[in-house]
Amino acid sequence: MKRVTGIGGIFFNAKDPATLRAWYQRHLGIDVQSWGGTAFSWADAAGNATGGTTVWSIGSAGSGHFAPSTAPFMINYRVEDLDALRQALRDEGCEVLEQTDDSELGKFGWVMDPEGNKVELWQPPAGR
């Protein structure tokens, strides 16, 4: 079974998200959208779109979205079979969070790494 197949997103919190988003937009040229981030489209070596994206987003430090982790970031990893991977991680003694989310964006699940960081696992919908 394949486990992680790529990075689906990088999410981090800020004390002042609007100011930090503006800094990244001005100084690094990131096209920050009204929802607080952007989606970088994947391309091959020739610059042709390959059908995937990596999300980059800044949220509010007080949101609690990364709980139970206290880290100011969370990485989202793309996976092929979320249910099978979650079971394999449980069988290996990992702390797999019970909550899952299934929406038009795909299936999401979470595991805690040994240092207490919440790791997001994402099975995108077919074709994404």
How would you summarize what this structure contains?
With 128 residues, the protein is an alpha/beta fold. Helix content is 17%, strand content 46%.
Topology:
Blueprint: E1 4-14, H1 17-28, E2 37-43, E3 49-60, E4 73-79, H2 82-91, E5 95-103, E6 106-112, E7 118-123
Parallel strand pairs: 1-3, 4-7
Antiparallel strand pairs: 1-4, 2-3, 5-6, 6-7
How many helices does DSSP assign? 2
The arrangement of helices and strands along the chain is EHEEEHEEE
Q: What's the helical proportion of residues? A: 10-25%
What is the number of E strands? Answer: 7
Q: Biggest sheet: strands, sense, closure?
A: 7 strands, mixed
Low-confidence region ranges: none
Q: In whole angstroms, how far apart are the ends? A: 19 Å
Content of β-strand: over 45%
The whole-number mean of residue pLDDT values reads 93
Helix and strand content put the structural class at alpha/beta
The coarse silhouette is globular
Cα-atom radius of gyration: 16 Å
What strand line-up does the widest sheet have?
2-3-1-4-7-6-5
